[in-house]
């Protein structure tokens, strides 16, 4: 399914030598238990009008209390919810003490700059600094295109 989530239960059953009903039950169970969160595609982002993929690494000013953290996380969820170009945001650990990562797509550099200016204005009171690594989607050397199908072969 990682290689082709469009494959029908019938095709998977035939490939595995099982019944279609068995595959349908297994798929339903995987969905119910949360192993399968969503079915999606990975489009050609350039054809959709995106020129930039940004990985933004953020360093918080201080570690807030538990209650403050809960409030900040909720505000963060609301903020990224208003920005559909953000495809992933989470806390973590990184070089230089970075605490948060945000991955976003942008139509051009001007839109990226506006987005980051908005981020800085909205979060400047708790963010010490941030750095972005920008990927030009239409040019440059792509060693491996963005796709989750490779995980199917990871053992």
Global mean pLDDT: 91
Question: What is the number of helical segments per DSSP (H or I, 4+ residues)?
Answer: 4
CATH architecture group name of the largest domain: 2-Layer Sandwich
Tell me how many strands there are: 4
Let me know the largest β-sheet: 4 strands, antiparallel
Reconstruct the topology from this structure:
Layout: H1 9-16, H2 20-32, E1 52-60, H3 66-81, E2 86-91, E3 100-106, H4 109-123, E4 127-136
Antiparallel strand pairs: 1-3, 1-4, 2-3
Helix pairs in contact: 1-2
What features would you highlight for this structure?
Alpha-Beta Plaits; 4 strands; 155 residues; single chain
Overview of this protein structure:
- This protein is an alpha+beta fold.
- It has two domains: 32 residues, no CATH class; 85 residues, Alpha-Beta Plaits (2-Layer Sandwich), CATH 3.30.70.100.
- Helix content is 34%, strand content 21%.
- It is globular.
């Amino acid at each position: 399914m990682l290689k082709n989530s469009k494959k029908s239960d019938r095709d998977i059953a035939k490939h595995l030598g099982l019944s279609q009903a068995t595959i349908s039950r297994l798929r339903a169970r995987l969905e119910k238990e949360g192993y399968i969160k969503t079915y999606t595609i990975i489009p050609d982002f350039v054809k959709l009008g995106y020129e930039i993929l940004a990985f933004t690494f953020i360093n918080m000013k201080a570690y807030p209390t538990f209650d403050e953290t809960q409030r900040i996380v909720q505000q963060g969820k609301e903020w990224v919810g208003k920005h559909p170009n953000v495809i992933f945001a989470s806390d973590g650990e990184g070089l230089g003490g970075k605490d948060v990562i945000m991955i976003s797509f942008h139509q051009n550099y001007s839109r990226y700059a506006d987005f980051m200016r908005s981020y800085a204005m909205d979060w400047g009171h708790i963010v010490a600094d941030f750095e972005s690594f920008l990927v030009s989607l239409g040019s440059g050397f792509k060693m491996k295109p963005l796709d989750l199908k490779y995980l199917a072969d990871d053992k």
